[in-house]
Amino acid sequence: MLGVAAWMALWWLTEAIPLGATSLLPLVLFPLLGVATPKEAAAPYANELVFLFLAGFFLAAALEFWNAHARIAYGIVGAIGTGTRRVVLGVMMATGFISMWISNTATTAMMYPIALAIGALFGEGRDASRLRTALMLGVAYAASIGGMGTLIGTPPNLIFAGAAPQLAGRSVSFLEFMAIGTPIVLVLLPACWGLLMLIFRGGATLGSGALAVIRSRRDALGPLRGGERLVLAVFVLTALAWVLRERKDFSGFIVPGLVDIAPGLTDSTVGLMGALLLFILSGTTADGVRRPLLTWREARGIPWEVLLVYGGGFSLATAMEATGLAQWMGGLMTGLAGFPTFVIYGGLALIVLLLSELASNTAVAAMAMPLAASLAVAIGEPPLALMLVAGLAASTGFALPAATAPNLIVFGSGQITVGQMARAGIVLDLIAVAVLVTVVTLLYPVVFG
After folding, report:
1. Would you say 128 and 149 are in contact if contact means Cβ atoms under 8 Å apart?
2. Is 449 helix (H, G, I), strand (E, B) or coil?
């Protein structure tokens, strides 16, 4: 088992072959080496949270097809105003919010041309160039930060939630994760904006031209109607169902949840209900054509490889636990037991952060879950808490262009040098670790008991 884990870690970190292909190793090696039966190795690939993320991909694909996500973004940016600093904040807020619900890469790809168009209005000169750099970095960083807010925001979140039942003995609901992830976004996003404004401060001015660009792009979408209206309705209802699924207990005052009506309802069930509605309901396009809100043609374009990475990570974690490897590795880390909780959380977050700067955050999260759980058992900490820290830390990585897809996309704008990204990213990495460790330390006992 140790050999297979090392093999998968090496291929995931170096991407010697595609991530999805590496994720199939357990299906071949576990039965050959007697680690697990074919059935036991394959079962984690059908973890219900794999289907939750599948539902999230379908919702995102529909939002993108009908341009509903662009309307939301233009609305947020237009409402902020046209001051240069406020425009950067508005773009980052729009990016962060959209990224909570669709992939970080898709969000960045959508906001990238908006940021380029606005940045062109900053004019010429050193100050204008610095503000353009801040704007482009803000898009990339906000996409990664926003993804930390919900279970479907980014793959590491769902890898954490999927590994929790096997490694920590409890499941994590959509709302429980939001109770931790959303405060991190609310603190880290403005902190990121403030950092960028401090590092790349400039005196460029921006007139009504920026607002005109936003207004023209929003006008080009036309009025909210037909399929777009229906897609937004399905999206909002699905998100509300995720939030309202569980029963709420406010110090003895109980607010009923959807589980009181349907006890077997899970977050995955809710997500798939919303996804299926997209295939069932029809809407009218701007050209007057009536068609389903989502067809399999768009569905084929979702990142299916990520679902295999989930399955491979879940299979790896399950086998490490079943064979005793996780407990053995935890025993090697008992020397950390004497350190304060905050220091342990911070050290783990920094290690995961460094790995995520060099490798896929999805692969890093998959590798980190069993290690974090083993460390927790060895030092007497709650496994879920350390797994949560590791999962969130895997979404950081702001210093290098290759660290995340959003970083790479904005780096291609030509507005940013590697040195500028590293200068802001290293500081933001440290701020992100401090914020997520503080939030988890303070809120974990409140949310999870």
Report:
1. no
2. coil
* pLDDT at residue 250, rounded to an integer: 56
Q: How far apart are CA 37 and CA 365, in angstroms?
A: 25
CA–CA distance, 10 with 319 (Å, rounded to integer) = 18
Whole-angstrom distance, CA of residue 65 vs CA of residue 260: 35
Global confidence as pTM: 0.72
Does residue 36 come out as left (phi exceeding 0), alpha (psi in the -120 to 50 range) or beta? beta
* DSSP-assigned states of every residue in 173-211: -HHHHHHHHHHHHHHHHHHHHHHHHHHT-------THHH
The answer to whether the beta carbons of residues 91 and 135 sit under 8 Å apart is yes
Rg of the chain, C-alpha, whole Å: 22
- Nearest Cα residue to 312 out of 75, 19, 71: 19
Produce one character per residue of 19-45: b if its CB has 16 or more CB atoms within 10 Å, e if not: bbebbbbbbebbbeeebbeeebbbebb
Q: 115: which 2 tokens?
A: 């940021």
**Please, which pLDDT band fits residue 281 given cuts at 50, 70 and 90?**
very high
DSSP H or E segment with residue 283: strand 282-284
Spatial separation of the C-alpha atoms in residues 404 and 397, rounded to whole Å: 7
- Do residues 385 and 160 make contact, with C-beta atoms less than 8 angstroms apart? no
What pLDDT score does 249 carry? 60
Average pLDDT (400-427) is 80
Mean pLDDT of the chain: 83
Q: What percentage of residues in the chain have a pLDDT greater than 90?
A: 24
